[in-house]
């Protein structure tokens, strides 16, 4: 395990720490082998060692999101805290959509529905010349006067990275004055090529300044690292006599403080949970559950058994596993008959996609292709039991067309043409309209827990039947729209041709 450094306020990027890539094309088995994680050996095909992969580099990017936005959707979702975006007002545009997501998340958890508490320092041209420290100080005091929060987060931006504002000194000074944690989160958009570094930046600040340093252990408390999804963990873990501590989204500062007191840490996606779970184990001795993700029978069984082993609840786990297998089997068999011959495609974050493909194959659905928005060759624990890609390949078979691309629309057309699916599962919905214009319905998984666990297989199967019932609408749409690409590009067989042969841009 590579040691996580909490002595500095700046988190190490995913590229530095994990060797993250955002462009690759081939088979899932090939990517797993090149990652050399659970496979043994560490020599990649391009002569580089360890976790460095042969990444494709395109000549341009059509659109993505940044680390600062992930700080918005993490630190900005702590219920009794305030996030200050030290940025131009454009960076605050994400507050609109994140406020909607936050309110929906609160409603799904039966919590009081309220608005986000975010403030933008509104940096302008003069601030780029003379600095924005004064605006930051004033914004922190405004946040205190308006909301009396339990903590204040400060998210940096590309602009503040260019200015060189001393955010750490301002935070330290105001923390002493206000007597609450004032936490700098260094998440400049240009610092990392993939937005998942923003998850790590938020979690880094929480670990440094909020998590209780002298914990009193609670033997039945489990940290669940998640986003805004429905609470499927409380009834599941309740069968084992365990309590849930949801973090980071929709948590209170008190919830974050007690993370160091938990008996274990779990998550629904290694991309989101890798940094926080590993650091909790490293710094506070809270075991991270090193097991496959809880998707499908095999993954959920293994996940529950490892959690039971760590918390000494093996008998309860076995009873629950047997009960759930028996409960879902009849409906699952019906769904398999109804979905026989269907072909699906998954376009989500990396570890989450691995889990969803497993569920689709449990449902008897053919999955010949998938797009993941990035790939981490390893996770922070570097434990082979968390190699979700190898687990998928070994237990559910290969994916012949497995691509890594950070939400590039111009590539998505070609990727779908390769496999011609009946439907797609998608998490970041910006690509869904293009699929619809090709006659392909999409299930936008706004609730990230929808497919998790035993019930998740049934949930996902019923959702797929629902969207397939509307396929005629999408086919009619496809018959009456024109795609905004030249015929030459629509005829191109390789969606990554501009990365493989960048001179084609000038030809």
UniProtKB/TrEMBL annotation:
UniProt GO molecular function: oxidoreductase activity
Domain Nitrogenase/oxidoreductase component: 75-467
Coiled-coil regions listed in the entry: none
Gene3D superfamilies the record matches: Nitrogenase molybdenum iron protein domain
Protein name per Swiss-Prot or TrEMBL: Nitrogenase molybdenum-iron protein alpha chain
Organism: Heliophilum fasciatum
UniProt lineage: Bacteria, Bacillati, Bacillota, Clostridia, Eubacteriales
């Amino acid at each position: 395990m590579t040691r996580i450094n909490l002595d500095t306020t700046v988190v190490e990027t995913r590229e530095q720490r994990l060797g993250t890539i955002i462009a690759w094309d081939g088979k899932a088995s090939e990517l797993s082998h090149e990652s050399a994680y659970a496979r043994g050996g560490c020599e990649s095909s391009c002569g580089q060692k360890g976790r460095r992969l042969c990444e494709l580099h395109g000549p341009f990017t059509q659109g993505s999101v940044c680390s600062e936005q992930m700080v918005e959707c993490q630190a900005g979702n702590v219920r009794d805290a305030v996030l200050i975006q030290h940025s131009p007002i454009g960076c605050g545009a994400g507050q609109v959509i994140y406020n909607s997501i936050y309110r929906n998340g609160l409603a799904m958890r039966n919590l009081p529905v309220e608005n986000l508490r975010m403030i933008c320092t509104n940096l302008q041209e003069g601030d780029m010349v003379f600095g924005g420290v004064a605006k930051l100080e004033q914004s922190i005091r405004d946040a205190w006067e308006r909301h009396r929060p339990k903590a204040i987060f400060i998210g940096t931006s590309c602009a503040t990275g260019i200015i060189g504002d001393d955010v750490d000194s301002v935070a330290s000074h105001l923390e002493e004055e206000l007597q609450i944690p004032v936490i700098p989160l260094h998440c400049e958009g240009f610092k990392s090529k993939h937005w998942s570094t923003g998850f790590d930046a938020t979690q880094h600040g929480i670990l440094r300044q909020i998590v209780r340093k002298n914990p009193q252990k609670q033997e039945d408390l489990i940290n669940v690292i998640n986003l805004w999804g429905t609470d499927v963990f409380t009834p599941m873990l309740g069968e084992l006599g365990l309590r849930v501590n949801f973090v980071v989204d929709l948590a209170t500062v008190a919830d974050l403080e007690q993370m160091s007191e938990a008996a274990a840490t779990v998550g629904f996606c290694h991309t989101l949970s890798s940094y926080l779970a590993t650091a909790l184990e490293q710094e506070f001795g809270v075991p991270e559950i090193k097991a496959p993700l809880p998707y499908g029978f095999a993954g959920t069984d293994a996940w529950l058994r490892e959690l039971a082993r760590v918390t000494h609840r093996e008998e309860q786990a076995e009873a629950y596993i047997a009960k759930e297998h028996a409960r879902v089997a009849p409906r699952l068999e019906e769904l398999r008959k109804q979905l026989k011959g269907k072909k699906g495609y998954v376009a989500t974050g990396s570890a989450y996609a691995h889990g969803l493909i497993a569920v689709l194959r449990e449902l008897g659905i053919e999955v010949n292709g998938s797009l993941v928005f990035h790939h981490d060759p390893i996770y922070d624990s570097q434990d082979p039991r968390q190699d979700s890609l190898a687990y998928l390949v070994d237990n559910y078979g290969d994916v012949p067309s497995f691509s890594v691309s950070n939400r590039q629309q111009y590539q998505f057309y070609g990727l779908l043409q390769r496999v011609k699916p009946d439907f797609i599962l998608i998490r970041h919905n910006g690509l869904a309209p293009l699929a619809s214009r090709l006659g392909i319905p999409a299930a936008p998984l706004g609730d990230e827990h929808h497919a998790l666990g035993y019930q998740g297989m049934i949930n996902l199967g019923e959702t797929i039947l629902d969207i397939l019932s509307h396929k005629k609408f999408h086919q009619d749409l496809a018959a009456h729209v024109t795609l905004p690409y030249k015929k030459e590009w629509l005829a191109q067989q390789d969606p990554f041709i501009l990365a493989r042969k960048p001179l084609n841009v000038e030809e």
